[in-house]
Amino acid sequence: MESLHEKATNLLTRLIAVPSFSKEEDEVASVLEDFFERERVNSFRKGNNIWVKNQYFDPNKPTVLLNSHHDTVRPNPQYTRDPFKPEVIDGKLFGLGSNDAGGPLVSLMATFLHYFPQQNLKYNVVLAATAEEEISGTGGVESIWSSLPTIDFAIVGEPTLCQMATAEKGLMVLDCIAQGKAGHAAREEGINAIYEALPDIEWFRTYRYPEVSETLGPIKMTVSIITAGKQHNVVPAECHYTVDVRCTDKYTLEELLDIIRQHVKSEVKPRSMRMRPSGIAEEHPLVQAAVKLGIHRYGSPTTSDQALIPTPSVKMGPGDSARSHSANEFIYVDEIRQGIETYIKVLNEVIL
């Protein structure tokens, strides 16, 4: 009989071979449906999201959600391998999405299969393989939340070296416009919007919020895109720039936006107020299981679908976040084994 590790690894090779860019995950969702059908597990689908419930699901019991995403970014231009050709070399499984988040996804799916036929669990186990995570799209986990059973807590599968992120920074992307007045660059005409933007950009670079989170540290603001001007001899009338704001539990997104608008002259518009910081109480059984098992816990600076799950959750899984979105992405085959074992050890402390 094929082991859980073999099933997970073989499934990941199938997933790598199928392009699954955000909003283009139809084919890979069908691969997942086929996998569950072969395992005799009834699956549900909405859009490109697939979810399943344990065999002895009891609506009177609380429910844990196992969630990870099957969409990927587009290949890094520095790839020297075929990103859609899964190959195992020196214990590394290469391919786009192998690390982020194919490895965590298939490890969670194997974990689900482990619990699927078990009776007398304290919790129901639901697994959701979801879409559009890489673009924080609305067609992912948010779109199926009302279709899922009531979820009491969740494990979000992301590459964390199997460490447990008990908190995660939120994200607010700001589109800013500094206004000037057009004029000829050869004469003392106009108001240069670039120069008008510079004090605001310097404020974003240097300002430090007084409240610092115990789990997530300080808020971080980064000006990441600047666009201004149409030709060399015209003073630009507008300077557009984008700010990446990594938020913590010390301020709401609304409070941050208000503070920012008080300090800068530029027009400031948030793209979204959805990606809020998340966390879980230290006394939660999941966290206490990690304490007992000696699993390292930390606050994550990167965002995931954890921000869109309105219930206590942790982020953990096999693979290394440093490999995500990199050229020639890979995950060690043994990391998948470790992921399955770690998920089961943690859940055993809670649901058995």
Structural topology:
Layout: H1 4-16, H2 26-38, E1 43-46, E2 49-53, E3 63-69, E4 87-89, E5 92-94, H3 98-115, E6 124-130, H4 141-144, E7 153-157, E8 164-168, E9 170-179, E10 183-184, H5 193-206, E11 220-228, E12 234-235, E13 238-247, H6 253-263, E14 267-270, E15 278-279, H7 285-293, E16 297-300, E17 313-316, E18 330-332, H8 333-351
Parallel strand pairs: 3-6, 3-7, 7-17, 8-16
Antiparallel strand pairs: 1-2, 2-6, 4-5, 5-18, 8-15, 9-13, 9-14, 10-12, 11-13
Helix pairs in contact: 1-3, 1-8, 3-8, 7-8
What does this molecule look like?
By secondary structure, this protein is of the alpha+beta class. It contains eight helices and 18 strands. The mean pLDDT is 96.
Short précis:
With 352 residues, the chain is an alpha+beta fold.
Q: What distinguishing features does this structure have?
A:
8 helices; 25% strand; 4-stranded antiparallel sheet; 6-stranded mixed sheet; alpha+beta; 352 residues; globular
